[in-house]
Structures are given as C-alpha cells and as structure tokens.
Structure to design on (296 residues):
C-alpha cells in the first residue's frame, strides 16, 4: 500500500509522482538493474492494483486505477517515465497515457487523459483550470459526452509562457445534455457541441526585448474557453451557436454568435430577456408567434 515512507525509499524522480498524482491504495513494484561493462540500465515498474489517484495538473479523481508506470534510466540517455493507466471516473472508463522525460528544470511532460461516456459532474467541472469552474456552473448544464485532456510542459512552454507554465488543452465533446444559463435563464434541450479550454494564450506572453525599442506591454494571461458548433432545441425551435471567452487585462471578455430558427415567442423567452433588461422592448411590441433571429 502506498505511504510517504514508501515513496521516500524510491529513486528521486519517482518520489515526485506522489506530489504529481496523489496516489492511494495497493500496488506491486518491480526493479531490475543491468550492467554490461561501462553501460548500465535501471528499470522500475509500478503496477497499481485498484488505486485512487488525482493528477495535479488536472485534479479529476480516478478510482480503481490499474496499469503500469515504468521508470527507465540508462548510462546513455536521460531518465524517462512511461505511463499507461486505466481507471474509473464519473461512471466511465478513463485512460491516462504519456511520458515524463528528464528532470527539472528541463523536464518534458506529455500526458493524455481520455474518457468516453462521462457525466459532466461537479468533479469534472472542478478539475478545470482558473475561473472556468465558476463560469461552467453558471451555465447550469447537465450533459454526457467524451473528453480529452492534453497536458504538456516542455522547452517551448517555458520559453513562451514562463518556467512553471503548462500548455494544457481540454476538449469536451457533449453528446447530449441541457442548459439553463444563469445570466439568460432560457432552458435548452438536446444540447450538443464541443467545449475547448486552453491554459495558455494562442501567442507567447514572454516576448524578447529588442534593443532601442520600448518595452512591450504585458500580455493578458489566463485560460481561453471556446464553444464550437453548439446545437440545441427549445419548444420546437432550433439554435446553433459558437463563441469564446478570452482573458483581457483585468478580467475576461465573452463573445457569442447564435442563430435561431422557428423559435416560439413565449413566456420563457420573455423572462429570459427580462434577466438581461430587455423586457421593455417586449412590452412595447408585445410579439407573439414564432420567428428566426441572429444574435452577435
């Protein structure tokens, strides 16, 4: 069973796994050392036997984790950790694969966490970076789908975004769901689409200074959130939309594009418009029936 005492006896690189994955539960450990003249190799393999784990860069709790974590170092190459794990989360199978090469401050991390048929629950929302959990809760969404989390830290991320930056990217494919946005409380059904979250901007924030040129203003830091090809229905009407939330100095800006067809001009729409202080227009024109519209 995993304990701090056990990790204290492992090679230094593997000791970092405790902080990185917060493992708990039973496991097997195997160790092989080979030498052939001046050449040598060390191989340590950890096999979880139904453990629990939570990765620091994406703290989504996993249980019943099984597979292998293999640490290999040779006289001719820098050390490498290869990860191939399967666990359970939100009632579905979740896989974690990838590698960790080298040692700080020049470590290269390339991991992928995937899950199919998962529920967009509080645990998955809480694992999202920065202020995105708060924003996603305001959507009041109930959804099922698939997700892919790519976790990267390498020479490029250190150069472009700072020594501690991770270039993480989360893709959530919503297959079916509903939403009742707190700001615009208009219930949507049959929701589908793709949500993408990135932890670094599209362009570097650490720019080299040119001699004789004024210092560049600080670039806004924070995660970006993108909505791709979202579709939903309400009362027989159909909506399509896309948008994004980008960091700006001092906060964030939300951009949405929505096209609607055959939407009912009903009481629910009137209440939603009242929430964003557009009820005066409704009172003035007193519309009824159905209509198409676009919002930008």
């Amino acid at each position: 069973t995993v304990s701090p005492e056990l990790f204290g006896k492992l090679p230094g690189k593997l000791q970092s796994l405790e902080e990185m994955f917060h493992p708990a539960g039973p496991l097997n450990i195997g160790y092989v050392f080979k030498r052939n003249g001046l050449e040598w190799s060390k191989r340590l393999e950890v096999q979880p036997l139904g453990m629990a784990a939570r990765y620091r860069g994406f703290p989504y709790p996993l249980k019943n984790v099984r597979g292998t974590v293999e640490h290999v170092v040779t006289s001719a190459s820098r050390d490498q950790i290869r990860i191939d794990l399967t666990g359970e989360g939100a009632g579905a199978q979740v896989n974690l694969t990838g590698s960790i090469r080298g040692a700080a401050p020049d470590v290269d991390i390339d991991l992928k966490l995937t899950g199919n048929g998962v529920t967009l629950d509080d645990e998955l929302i809480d694992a999202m970076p920065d202020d995105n959990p708060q924003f996603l809760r305001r959507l009041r969404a109930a959804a099922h789908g698939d997700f892919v989390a790519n976790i990267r830290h390498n020479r490029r991320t250190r150069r472009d975004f700072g020594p501690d930056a991770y270039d993480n990217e989360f893709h959530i494919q919503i297959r079916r769901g509903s939403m009742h946005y707190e700001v615009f409380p208009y219930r949507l059904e049959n929701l589908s689409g793709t949500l993408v979250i990135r932890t670094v901007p599209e362009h570097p924030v650490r720019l080299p200074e040119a001699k004789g040129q004024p210092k560049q203003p600080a670039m806004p830091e924070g995660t970006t959130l993108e909505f791709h090809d979202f579709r939903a229905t309400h009362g027989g009407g159909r909506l399509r939309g896309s948008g994004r939330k980008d960091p700006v100095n001092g906060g964030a800006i939300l951009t949405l594009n929505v096209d609607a067809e055959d939407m009912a001009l009903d009481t629910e729409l009137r209440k939603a418009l009242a929430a964003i202080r557009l009820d005066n227009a409704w009172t003035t024109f007193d519309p009824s029936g159905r209509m198409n519209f676009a919002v930008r």
Remarks:
- The first helix runs from residue 4 to 8.
- The chain has a mean pLDDT of 86.
